[in-house]
Each structure stands twice: as structure tokens, then as C-alpha cells.
Amino acid sequence: MRIGICAPSTPFTHEDAARISALAAAARPTAELVFHDQCFAEAGHFAGSDGERLEAFVDLANDPDLAAAYKKAHEAYLTDRDALGLVVEEVEGISAGGMPDRVKCLHSLVAHSLSAGPGVNPLGDEALRKLPEWWKENACNSEMNA
Length: 146
What we know:
Layout: E1 2-5, H1 14-27, E2 32-35, H2 50-62, H3 64-83, H4 106-116, H5 122-130, H6 134-137, H7 142-145
Parallel strand pairs: 1-2
Helix pairs in contact: 2-3, 4-5
């Protein structure tokens, strides 16, 4: 099985990739990791920790119930978008965040969970539960933005 790696939360080195490949080979000998060149870029972005995404991928790959729920989330996303009447050929059949067979962009999955509500996207719900509640201490309001 080939697994593509892209969009890490921080850049890493080719040596890091070799260590990750060795760990993956020890855990899943039939898995081959393929690292996109973007992984080694010097520009960070929010996508969750590598560990969180690896854990989500392993969960998805090994749990048929979670895989089925994630596929349903993908289908719900497409149904909701179609209901808006938006037709864009380039994204036909494509949802977000790597659905339905990989975990790529946790921020997309969180956004889907926020817009669709709890229980629709299991991995988005999980990522949302793990987010720090930064707004409780410093809520956005008009006084702060004045």
C-alpha cells in the first residue's frame, strides 16, 4: 500500500522522513510512504500535528466503522455543496480535508464539523474536541477590536 504524505504542520528534513519511514515499516511492513516535496519546504501552516494526522490515518485504515462514517461525511459534504447549486467541474466529486480515504487538512475537517454539526464528520469532531479553547480567555468582541 502506498501512502502519500503532504501538508505537514511544520517543515521537516529528509532525515526525518527516513526515520518516519522506518517507524512506519516497523508498524506496517506493507506500507510505502511517499513524501511530497512540499514536506521539506520552509513555510509552516496549520494542519495539525504529524502525530495527530498519523493517528487519524491509522484509525481510519484499521477501523471499518470509522472508515464508513468518514465516507458518509464525504458524501454529506458533496450533498450539501450540491444543494447550494454550485457547479465547479474542477472539484466534482472532491470534498475537503482528504475525505474519504485520507486525512490531510484538519482545518477543513474542523470547518466541516462546525458547519454540518456534531456527528457528521467523526475526524472533524475529534479534531474540534482537541482544539484549545482559546476563546474562553480572550473572546473576540467589539471592545477588543476597537
